[in-house]
Amino acid sequence: MQIDRVEAIHLCYQYPDRRGFESSGGITNGRLTSLIRVHTACGRIGLGSVYSHPALVDVVIRQLDPLLRGRDPREVETLWQLMYGWTRWYGRKGAALSALGGVDIALWDLRGQAANQPVWKLLGGTSSSCPAYASGLLWNSLDGLRAEAQRHLARGFRRMKMRLGRNPDYDVDAPRAVKREIGPRHDLMCDASMRYSLATALRIGSELAQVGAFWFEEPFAPEDLELFAQLRGQVGVPVAAGENEFGLQGFAELIHRQAVDIVQADASRCGGISEVLKVAELADRAALKLAPHSWSDAVAVVANAHVVAATPHALTVEVDQTGNPLIDALLAEPLRIQEGRLNLGDKPGLGIELNEAEVARHRLADATQIPDGWYSDMLFGVQVNNPAPPYAQLG
Questions:
Q1: Angle at CA 291, nearest 5°, toward 285 and 294?
Q2: Tell me: the pLDDT tens digits for 41-59?
Q3: Which of the residues 8, 56, 110, 138 could staple to 61 if both were Cys, CB 3.0 to 4.6 A apart?
Q4: What is the CB-side half-sphere exposure of residue 350 using CA atoms within 13 A?
């Protein structure tokens, strides 16, 4: 089996009236993601996902494409090192490593197809499903949050995550309201969206411990490792971070600084399935847990889920529940959640096919021409930059 070519496909979805949900970044207008197809001479196609700036992804994939042509896609580890060597001078973190990782996911898909085994089994797993949680509960009224929590339970989820960072009163009252709604048998994670000072994190974290929060995510910016290290172990809730980290070297710093209890490596951001496996191994040696971040599209969710299904110390995988068709409608067979678990099945590779009509509906003709807006994590157009006011920190 030989690689024929590598293709990047960029997708853009606009929420109705360009108003999706509200969070610390302001009103989210739409969503972006990039898919990777690795085509082989024998007709097999591997799928991957990249969550980064589409135009930057294009640049990297155009350099990697001629490098990979004619090579055996089953030699995943060798090709990862080859791609990393070619992008090191402008990469090592950020878009270059994310793009490389999208190719890596597609190579794992092809390796599984060639072996006639699902990726989770290739990785040593024994179960075709893994725990999954609903990711949503953005800023809303307490009644709105309670109603949304019930919808997540009705869809089969047993865990869910909400966003804080609005103001101190909301950040205390909202988790209390949702936890009362879902009850003690269901887990609630809380994401502070990098908005807190250390004093605020200590205060809010102690409140989250009282309501029994499952984890306390990203109270600080990813660069503030010293604050993470000072917080960990002080609030009675496990501290989680890593969605904004890249590569084994980035996670090694996070782990060696003893900054978190749970690492959130994302195959579509941090360097592919291969790199998440390395991060998982390092976390295990440090007695930490793994809970991959997944926010961009259904291919990324499935890639991360295969790792979780095969990793004993992995907790769960994230499934966006904000009405994003790049999650809900991208696959020919939509994601299935039953009793809190995502079913991966036994089909070879990642075991998925794209809904080509949905791909065509949202495909960007030009990765450099993105409508102005706030895309949850990426901003295009200075004039639409309208983040929430600064957080009123607690003393």
A1: 140
A2: 999 999 999 999 999 999 9
A3: 8
A4: 30
CATH of domain 120-350: 3.20.20.120
Q: What is the pLDDT of residues 273-290, one digit of tens each?
A: 999 999 999 999 999 999
What is the pLDDT, as a whole number, of residue 395? 80
Q: If you average pLDDT over residues 113-131, what whole number do you get?
A: 98
Whole-angstrom Cα distance, residue 57 to residue 50? 8
Q: Which residues of 261-293 are buried (b: 16+ CB within 10 A; e: fewer)?
A: bbbbbbbbbbbbbbbbbbbbebbeeeebbbbbb
Q: Is 42 left (phi over 0), alpha (psi -120 to 50) or beta?
A: alpha
Cβ pair 326, 11 in contact under 8 A: yes
| Rounded Cα distance, 326 and 358, in Å | 8
pLDDT score recorded for residue 84: 97
3-116+357-384 CATH pick, 1.10.460.10, 3.30.390.10, 3.80.10.10, 3.30.70.20:
3.30.390.10
End-to-end Cα, the chain, rounded Å: 62
Q: State pLDDT tens for residues 66-112.
A: 999 999 999 999 999 999 999 999 999 999 999 999 999 999 999 99
What is d(CA 167, CA 165) in angstroms, rounded to the nearest whole number? 6
Helices (H), the chain: 54-68, 76-87, 95-115, 119-122, 142-154, 168-182, 198-211, 225-231, 247-256, 267-270, 272-285, 298-310, 325-328, 356-362
The pLDDT confidence band at residue 384, using thresholds 50, 70 and 90, is confident
Tell me the domain boundaries of the chain: 3-116+357-384, 120-350
> Read out DSSP for 96-137?
HHHHHHHHHHHHHHHHHHHHTSBHHHHTT---SEEEEEEE--
Mean pLDDT score of the chain, rounded to an integer? 97
Q: Assign 168 to helix, strand or coil.
A: helix
Same fold for the pair 3-116+357-384 and 120-350? no
Q: List the one residue out of 263, 342, 359, 360 whose CA is nearest residue 301.
A: 342
| Residue 372 pLDDT greater than 90, yes or no | yes
